[in-house]
Amino acid sequence: MISIMNFFRSADRPYFEGWYFKHQTPQRQTLALIPAFHIDGGGRPAASLQVISNDKSWWLEYPAEQLQVSRKPFQIQLGQSRFGTQGIDLHIQEKGLSLQGALRYGPFTALRSDIMGPFRFFAGMQCSHGVISMGHALGGTLELNEAPLDFYGGIGYIETDRGRSFPSKYLWTQCVWGGPERGSLMLAIATIPLPAGGFTGCICSVFYGGREYRLATYRGVKIEAWSPAAAVIRQGKYRLEAKLLCERRQALRAPVEGRMERTIHESLCAEVRYRFWRGKDLLFQHTDPNASFEYSPAG
User: Fold this and answer.
1) Is the Cα torsion angle 255, 259, 260, 264 positive or negative in sign?
2) Of residues 73, 102, 81, the one with CA closest to residue 35
3) 73: buried, middle or exposed (CB in 10 Å: 19+, 13-18, 0-12)?
4) Is the peptide bond between 118 and the residue preceding it cis, with omega within 30 degrees of 0?
5) Pick from 21-25, 137-141, 143-147, 253-257: least confident
6) 3-state SS string over 121-175?
7) Distance from the Cα of residue 148 to its chain's centroid
8) How far apart are CA 238 and CA 234, in angstroms?
9) Radius of gyration over every alpha carbon of the chain, rounded to an integer in angstroms
């Protein structure tokens, strides 16, 4: 692993990079962790960890030198805690937050290709998204403020973002579920500013029935509607609808020109109904109480 400072030497300023680790128990308890590093326009580096439970969120700051990252193999060490392809080991004791324990991950479900497609080559992109695992098995237990969380038989998901700032207006939703009709999906719609104008872009991956369906602006997707509570996209004969039924929002911090100064609100455990069609055939309808849903208006 190399230190955060070596990342900063090769990164444009301002810059941020973060990783979103989501964990669900079979009993519908959910915990997400977002380790991140960021550098402002003045070259000042910092590291952070956001912790999100069903009903609360925490923000922790760390000195930059306490973060180390490895790309291959994927591994992050932040303070005394580790995150990687094999699982996580947490040793967090702060005011108002005690989080201890270890989880082990099963094999990752990786995408066939980068979710950004040719967008990843666009110079000046405000934010680039990545998916590390669309779903993997969990084992192990954690203790959150002395309350046990049993993740044996649970399921996880991991994604990442990097760039300068989050888009000014965006919608993001994610869901992964097990059982005989197991599936996973991620959908993001955002306004994309570019030096010569901008556009509204969409990236989406749906895993169902043993295959991936990729819907994206670079593949001709049409955004039929998007709002604080719903999104509908269409690509050829495929159509995806996501409708927010119930939410429990938590305040999180997001980057603005490398500084974690923006407040956004994410529902880690929203109830969302997803419907996916191929022509007139409804391939699946899934309503999940552990879906993630986030909408941020332009401000």
Assistant:
1) negative
2) 81
3) exposed
4) no
5) 253-257
6) HCCCCCEEEEEEEEEEEEEEEEEECCEEEECCCCEEEEEEEEECCCCCCEEEEEE
7) 24
8) 6
9) 18
Helix count (H) and strand count (E) of the chain?
Answer: 1, 23
Beta-carbon contacts of 140 under 8 Å, excluding residues fewer than 6 positions away, are: 87, 101, 102, 103, 104, 151, 152
Q: Are 32 and 268 in contact (CB under 8 A)?
A: yes
Tokens 């996973």, residue located: 184
- Ramachandran angles phi, psi of 117, nearest 5°: 55, -140
Distance of CA 135 to the CA centre of its chain: 12
Digit-coded pLDDT (tens) for 213-250: 999 999 999 999 999 999 999 999 999 999 999 998 98
Backbone angles phi, psi at 126, to 5 degrees: -65, -40
The DSSP 8-state label assigned to residue 180 in this structure reads T
pLDDT at 2 over 70: no
Give the DSSP H or E segment for 206.
Answer: strand 197-208
Which 3 state secondary structure label does DSSP give 117? Answer: helix
Q: What is the pLDDT of residues 44-64, one digit of tens each?
A: 899 999 999 998 999 999 999
User: What confidence category does residue 75 fall into, taking pLDDT thresholds of 50, 70 and 90?
Assistant: very high
Chain position carrying tokens 């719903």: 230
- Cα 168 to Cα 45: distance, rounded to the nearest angstrom: 23
Question: Which residues, other chains included, contact 197 with Cβ-Cβ below 8 Å and sequence gap of 6+?
Answer: none
Distance of CA 123 to the CA centre of its chain: 23
Contact (CB, 8 A) for 105 and 138? yes
- Which residues contact residue 199 at a Cβ distance below 8 angstroms, ignoring those fewer than 6 apart? 191, 192, 217
The CA distance from 268 to 249, in Å, is 7
Tokens at residue 202, please?
A: 């969409």
What tokens appear for 50 in the block?
């956001």
